[in-house]
Amino acid sequence: MEIENTSDEKKMEQPQQQSLPRRQKGGLITMPFIIANEALEKVASYGLLPNMILYLMGDYHIGIAQGTNILFFWSAATNFLPVIGAFVSDSYLGRFLTIGFGSISSFLGIVLLWLTAMIPQARPPPCNQFKEKCKTPTSPQYAVLISCFALMSIGAGGIRPCSLAFGTDQLNNRNRPKKESDIVLEKFFNWYFAATATSIVIAFTGIVYVQDHAGWKVGFGVPTILMFLSALFFFLASSLYVKQKATVSVFTGFAQVIVVAYKNRKSSFPSQNSNLGYHQKKGSSLSQPTNKLRFLNKACIIQNPQDITPDGEASNPWALCTVEQVEALKSLIRVMPLWSTSIMMSINISQGSFQLLQAKSMDRHITSGFQYPAGSFGMFTIIGAVIWIGLYDRVIIPLATKIRGKPVKIEIKTRMGLGLLCSFIAMVVSAIVEHVRRKEALASGYLNNPEGVVAMSAMWLVPQHFLNGMAEALTSVGLTEFLFSELPKSMLSVASALAGLGLAVGNLLASFILSTVDNLTKRGGKVSWLSNDINKGHYESYYWLLAIMSSINLFYFILCSWAYGPCSDEGFFKVRDEREEDLKEEELTSLGIGDKNGGEKFKEQEV
Q1: β-bridge pairing 454-457 and 365-367
Q2: What is the pLDDT of residues 271-299, one digit of tens each?
Q3: pLDDT digit string, tens, across residues 37-49
Q4: What is the per-residue burial (b if ≥16 Cβ within 10 Å, else e) of 409-418?
Q5: Going by C-beta distance under 8 Å and a sequence separation of 6 or more, which residues neighbour residue 291?
Q6: Whose CA is closest to 253, among 313, 307, 303, 321?
Q7: Alpha helices by DSSP H, 487-535
Q8: Contacts with 565 (C-beta within 8 Å, 6 or more apart), sequence order
Q9: H-state helical runs in 89-177
Q10: Which residue ranges are recorded for the region named Disordered (predicted)?
């Protein structure tokens, strides 16, 4: 009997051993791999940009205008493709595969760029374009160069829109208490943005320094190794990741609304006595669309009761949309004019190629034995943004709150306007500094010597970088907060994508402006404002043109701001405060004091 009991116990133990749960995927253990992937990709890609115009001019014999245009198109593609990457990730591949393909593409692009420095046949023969006529790149050489930029842009389009969201996927544990989940998520965000900021600082200083002192072979080789490590770290943790499947993207919903509204353009709106009405999402409080942009409302009109399934869903989403889809597209259309005002700031900030040539022609000595790298002056833009954010958050707001005796917050649209004003002033300062630099160069006899260094400190370029940093901190941060507060919660990915899209449009317009100015000013055999010879050109006139355009953009912003009307710019902070008050009321109610209907009041206010 004892033997039988023992065997029975073994039989009972076997299922228990088999039913032991496997290790849950995701969690904090995956964070170092995801953060390393994003951070190393940024060091590799951002480190290539500051000095790239020097590589194009010196090794490929490409002029300043044409070279800057190439960089504009590269930046535009890098900023636009994340929108495509987000759509592909959400609708088809999922975030893991999108990041994986992006990492491989970026690595291949940087390897190809490194090979152009290693293989002499990949470039035109060496020569000094300021002293002799140089051969231009052949078609195959051009094709290889453009392929490098294309592969890196595709890679950025796969990594950047998905990295943060993929990290969030790893931390979404339903079994974890909400308070603990918020703490873990906050910790991830802090480390993620700290790593991103650090990577950009390293790119603008360390990588640029290596390129200046060790040449292009080593200068491109270091980013190649870093990008290899970025891809390696990401794939090493493949078995640990939570890999969510692709779902329908919000961009698909926008397309459905436009298509269905066009199909139903001849349909009439439902009357009050009609049995048919508008199709709403199950459990939604929106029963009918607003009257703004009314023509889109036809996308959610129920033409036939059979268009809706028994569970309340549309049988064909390309024939019937929900009220929520229609209102989401309306909210996007409504914010676009104010969003477009930030494009001019993007144009101004993207003038790094000219500022690099200015810095190289000025005295960059910090000490007698150390020169500040010309390509690292962009760091002052980042420093300006950080200083302003610190002053605003830690000094200006607390001081204003103390003086007024109540919480103070500068309105979002006011901050955006101040940022555009800073951008305008930055261009004015740029024009004045370049006017003084060129005057000094001509006085020193450097008219035909663009490589001559004038007796003027390059630190005079710092104020314009600081102003650009303040402009970005005010306008970009304000715009992000504006989009997050004005767009529905389901469109947060769209809000994030619009920021990158603004930079992409800015790069394309900057390229158009540059080409137009170059072509118009060199007519009749004249020297172009944007000549390769910085002392023969008139960069200060180009800056004055951008300053005039920035002033016009300021008036455009004021008009758009007035047309938009009041916005819920304090929505996030207001809800947070109300929830805190509601929790306090619930605590008092549980103790038998306070208004027992407080919770209901909060729900009414929230709706």
Answers
A1: unpaired
A2: 765 656 888 877 676 778 888 888 898 88
A3: 988 988 998 899 8
A4: eeebbebbbb
A5: none
A6: 321
A7: 492-521
A8: none
A9: 95-118, 139-159, 163-171
A10: 1-21
Radius of gyration of the chain (CA): 29
Residue 570, pLDDT score: 41
User: What are the φ and ψ backbone dihedral angles of 456, each rounded to 5 degrees?
Assistant: -140, 130
Contacts of 407 (CB under 8 A, 6+ apart): 401
The span from the CA of 363 to the CA of 80, in Å, is: 37
User: Can you read off the two tokens belonging to residue 191?
Assistant: 């480390």
Give dist(CA 594, CA 585) in Å, integer.
6
* Whole-angstrom distance, CA of residue 569 vs CA of residue 566: 8
Q: For the chain, give every domain's residue range.
A: 25-247, 250-321, 328-573
Whether pTM exceeds 0.90: no
Q: Please report, as a single letter, which amino acid is at residue 247.
A: T
Q: Are 400 and 463 in contact (CB under 8 A)?
A: no
Residue reference for tokens 């993929």: 166
The predicted-structure confidence for 62-106, as pLDDT tens digits, reads as follows 988 899 999 999 999 998 998 888 888 877 888 899 999 999 999
**The CATH fold of domain 328-573:** Growth Hormone; Chain: A; (1.20.1250)
The answer to whether 427 touches 543, Cβ cutoff 8 Å, is yes
* Cβ proximity of 553 and 348 under 8 Å: no
Q: Give CATH superfamily name and number for 25-247.
A: MFS general substrate transporter like domains (1.20.1250.20)
Give the Cα separation of 330 and 296 in Å (integer).
8
